[in-house]
Amino acid sequence: MKSFRDEYSLQATDSVPEGVAFDAKTGRFFATGLLSGTITQIDAETGAELPFYAPAGQPQQLTGAKVDEVRRRLWVCYSEIQNMLGGVHVFNVDTGARVASFELARGGICNNVALAADGVAYVTDSFQPVIYRIDLEAGTADEFVRDPRMSAPMGQFGLNGVAVSPDGAYVIGGFTSPSKLFVVPRAGGEVREISLDGDPFAPAGDPHFLGADGIIFIGEALYVIHDGGVQQVTFTAPGYRAGTVKNRLVREPGLSTATAANGELYVIKSEVVRMVHMKQPPRLPFKIYRVPLEVFD
Question: Is pTM beyond 0.90 here?
Fold first, then answer.
């Protein structure tokens, strides 16, 4: 079994590594490039970083990523923001070969992807109130749900992170502007906004919690990533209809999303807010680092 480091520095200086995923079988992290359109792989034990995928021609913006460890697939969201379209690429995680691509969004962009145990993927559209469903084995891709309550405010991001619940029965969508969580049964049914208490889920004027970005389950708790903080949501009602929030600051801001590795929470410091939205230089290096779950005790 590989040993894990608390921190991994990334080599790029301008890629904006927005998405991160982990493959437990080979002990590799994957970081996607929002500006470069590349994917790099990082050895969890040595920290060595190597290319995994480089685009031929004009790069697409690559964002959310997940590894299907059973089927040996790496799913990565892509978008062409200037053309308002998006989709997903699917790679063989062992060879790097691209095995499938699905165009999903026209008039929107694809932001993040979640995988169910049966291999079905769910993808969020940040500019349209849509979550897509892709069945790679069947070769089908369509809208899973469209609901006006998940509509993005003009010029802002709506749906962002996405996760499948630990029981496999629900899809949870994170919403950025303003921060919210939505839940919908995988079998079909009503979209609900999750009722949240405890710490404020959308703290007004707090620069650390600018809007929910990536979301991920570790055990039964959901972790919501913001630029400068992480929120833990513990669910308190059947069907994930309600939860209690704990807010914690992180040691280095600039986060976009997270992955689970060795049962721990690893975030990626991508500087996406600073570079893309604020048009300021990044605080280098880009990193993947561990946020101890004990801070929520």
Answer: yes
